[in-house]
Design brief:
The chain is built from 17 helices and 34 strands. By secondary structure, the protein is of the alpha+beta class. Strands 3-4-5-7-6 form a five-stranded mixed beta barrel. A five-stranded mixed β-barrel has the order 8-9-10-12-11.
């Protein structure tokens, strides 16, 4: 039985009574032991007043001063409970009120002191809903005959008592280890753990991917039993399945793959067709592998995919959402019949989307190209042989006509793109949150335009049908995140003003990127601008996506083998195909075409049966939180690996001098970005020995009292790499030259 209290409580809503039998089914309690454990948890929650029992069923007790939140702690022992709701206040929690909760845990917090204009509300942890640290990175120490693990994360304020359990802990003393929690703290009793792996003598001796995987508790392998499940899947396409699908095998189709080699085979999930219609329109087909046909909802493989939630990309190492054998079996390959869900879009010659349809199909891939090969074919059509001529004309239409027209529409509504090199293989915006214009493979960003539109079309259709969905939204950036960058831009001589002082809109970012791309510091400025964007997140309600300049519904559907949300979207579409009601009543003679955009605005009834509709809405309410958490873990892990690699690289450069740009100034020092490496380090104010430096926040600078030298945002400086803390990814620098003469404004009092 694997579920948290948070998962259990997610099934209580709207003051409804919930039967224990219903919870047993939802939580997968299939044997007597699991059922008894669930009952014990329900009895405990009733005892402490979280649930109440009525007629043999349970109801959630709602208290005004009791909120659900996630703990964020500091190394100094104080914590804040971050509420799930946007714009809600953070709640201060003293160490004495943590009730053995740790950094990252999901908790119920009781507010014991209301906040004021200057002070946050104060609370105490009433119940730990979900632990976030089932394992941790630690250093082993010995005290007399007892062994302890000291967490490397200084926000985890405890020592872990180690159980021998067959391990020779003497070998682990003073080494970096991966330790799993055997027992969490109970009252005055400390937590107990066991060493699962010795990683190295210290963090630098351990492999960076091992550190990241252990730190974030990432699933590195599939078990033998999980791999055996793949053998049970059918590899043949049955005749009765073909009869349900539109046959596209005679239409020329093509796929695109990365040039980068990784340790896991690429999962090719999308194919393209482009045809001219009889009325001189262009018909673009995006054909997405039908993973939902092979991975049934609620099956063991589905539970594995749901738990992982997404694919983790750690450099060349890939931790896939599904076993590698599934990728090999069902990835779109040339000369192989494949089941797909196809989004067929009709455009006029100006690029306007006229109508679309979404339907189950079967295709057979004719061509598979890398991005580099595609660019070569398009660069010199004269070298193309006669057999390839028709195919290359399709590519020219796709990349020189359709995609640029779609891009023009995005730019017209205020969309923007960043000059960065993509690090993840997602063909849409992925975790970057906006379109990346790669200088090495410009063809990739043109393809991204098509796939983002596909995501948008599917989200629009689900929303128009009124069926449950999960949407991808991205809030607008916070002013505080953008303010320092705008000061830096101004100091670099780039004149820019927001269109509206009250609101940041995508058009502002579009205008800003146009200016930044003309700067000699274009790479670092785009990198910093990306850092001001908020992470996108999933919601069961449609909303705006800032990075793509969409004001309404947007979702993900093109990667059902890499992201669980895309698989869910496929299942929603397939439910519409199989269970959807195309008319108000059975007596109504003419129905609508649920597969087509032509039905939009004509539906005045529930498309899905009430039981299916309610079950999906209930499931999605829980899944949204889980999928957001998994995306955050993936994003943190991928950033961690990037930070470790940068720290490792800079460790080798200790003592060397680099040219850098001051990108942040604080009272304790200033941050310098070494531009060609995109590595940031800190020049601490204590290392500035030539004078006493004062901080001027209004002008973003440190100014020397005697020599009147200023270090301000946008100044170029020469810095030497003094030291590197590899695990914390902290790079200490000292100035060798640079800075600028202070002016009168720099001495203004704040």
């Amino acid at each position: 039985m694997e579920f948290s209290i948070a998962t259990l409580l997610s099934y209580f809503s709207d003051n409804k009574l919930v039967a224990s039998k219903y919870l047993e089914k939802k939580l997968g309690c299939e044997d007597d032991k699991s059922i008894q454990q669930l009952q014990a948890i329900l009895d405990t929650l009733e005892l402490i007043g979280i649930l109440e029992k009525e007629r043999g069923k349970y109801r959630r007790v709602i208290e005004d001063n009791l909120v659900q939140a996630k703990l964020r702690c500091s190394s100094k022992g104080f914590c804040f409970a971050i509420q799930d709701e946007e714009d809600e206040e953070d709640i201060y929690v003293r160490e004495a009120h943590l009730s053995n909760a740790w950094n990252g845990d999901r908790v119920l917090v009781k507010i014991i002191k209301q906040g004021t204009r200057r002070r946050s509300p104060e609370g105490e942890v009433k119940l730990i809903l979900e632990r976030s640290n089932p394992s941790l990175l630690a250093q082993v120490k010995k005290d007399n005959d007892n062994y302890y693990a000291i967490p490397l994360d200084d926000r985890l304020l405890f020592e872990l008592s180690l159980a021998e359990e067959g391990n020779n802990l003497e070998k682990a003393i003073d080494h970096l280890v991966h330790a799993s929690i055997v027992r969490y703290p109970i009252g005055e009793h400390p937590p107990v753990g066991k060493v699962t792996r010795i990683l190295g003598s210290d963090a630098e001796a351990a492999a960076d991917t091992d550190i990241v995987c252990c730190k974030h508790d990432l699933p590195q392998n599939f078990t033998e039993n999980e791999l055996k499940l793949v053998d049970q899947l059918s590899k043949k396409i049955e005749t009765k399945e073909l009869e349900k699908r539109s046959d596209w095998r005679d239409v020329t189709s093509f796929t695109f793959i990365e040039d980068v080699v990784r340790d896991c085979p690429p999962f090719i999930e999308t194919a393209f067709t482009l045809e001219e219609t009889e009325d001189n329109h262009l018909q673009l087909g995006v054909h997405i592998i039908d993973v939902a046909h092979h991975i049934q909802s609620g099956s063991p493989l589905d539970k594995i995919a749901k738990k992982r939630g997404t694919t983790f990309y750690l450099g060349e190492k890939v931790l896939p959402m599904l076993p590698e054998s599934i990728i090999k079996n069902y990835s779109l390959k040339p000369n192989k019949d494949s089941l797909t869900i196809s989004v067929i879009m009709n455009f006029d010659r100006s690029g306007q989307l006229l109508e679309f349809s979404i339907k189950p199909t079967i295709i057979n891939i004719d061509h598979q190209l890398t991005y580099q090969k595609t660019q070569e074919l398009l660069a010199d059509p004269s070298k193309v042989n006669s057999k390839q001529k028709g195919f290359v004309e399709k590519l020219q239409n796709l990349f020189f006509t359709v995609s640029p027209l779609i891009k023009a529409q995005r730019l017209q509504r205020g969309g923007f793109e960043l000059q960065l090199e993509p690090k993840l293989p997602y063909q849409d915006e992925g975790r970057i949150g906006t379109i990346v214009a790669s200088s090495k493979t410009p063809i990739r960003s043109l393809l991204t335009e098509l796939l983002i539109l596909t995501n948008k079309v599917v989200a629009t259709h689900i929303n128009a049908l009124g069926v449950p969905g999960i949407y991808c939204i991205q809030p607008e950036p916070d002013w505080e995140e953008l303010e320092d960058l705008l000061k830096l831009v101004q100091n670099l001589g780039i004149e820019f003003n927001l269109q509206d002082d009250e609101e940041i809109i995508p058009r502002d970012y579009h205008n800003l990127t146009q200016l930044l791309n003309k700067s000699s510091h274009v790479n670092v400025l785009n990198y910093l601008l990306h850092g001001t964007l908020k992470s996108s997140r999933y919601s069961s309600y449609p909303g705006a996506h800032f990075g793509l300049a969409y004001n309404d519904s947007y979702s993900h559907c093109i990667s059902p083998g890499k992201r669980y949300i895309d698989l869910l979207i496929q299942r929603i579409l397939k439910l519409v195909f199989s269970e959807g009601r195309d008319r108000r009543t059975k007596q109504t003679k003419i129905g609508v075409d649920l597969y087509s955009s032509k039905c939009h605005g004509n539906i005045t009834w529930n498309v899905l049966p009430p039981t299916i509709q309610e079950e999906l809405e209930e499931d999605f309410r829980f899944l949204v939180t889980h999928l957001n958490d998994q995306e955050k873990i993936a994003e943190s892990a991928e950033k961690d690996l990037e930070g470790l690699k940068k720290a490792e690289k800079m460790k080798e450069q200790t003592g060397k001098v680099f040219q850098g740009l001051i990108t942040g100034v604080q009272s304790y020092g200033f941050f310098v970005e070494i531009e060609h490496l995109l590595v940031e380090g800190l020049v601490h104010v204590s290392s500035l020995k030539d004078d006493w430096y004062e901080y001027r926040s209004r002008h973003g600078c440190l100014v020397g009292r005697k020599n009147h030298i200023a270090y301000r945002l946008g100044d170029e400086v020469e810095v030497e790499v003094k030291s590197v803390d590899y695990y914390r990814q902290q790079i200490d620098l000292v100035t060798v030259g640079g800075g600028s003469a202070a002016n009168n404004n720099d001495w203004d009092e704040d």
